[in-house]
Amino acid sequence: MLQTIQVEIDATGHIHPMEELSFKPVGRALLTLLDATTETMPLQINEGRGSVARALTLLSSPRFARRPAANTTEVIQRVTAIRDEWDASK
Question: How much of the chain is helix, strand and coil, in % rounded to 5?
Answer without folding.
Answer: 30, 5, 60
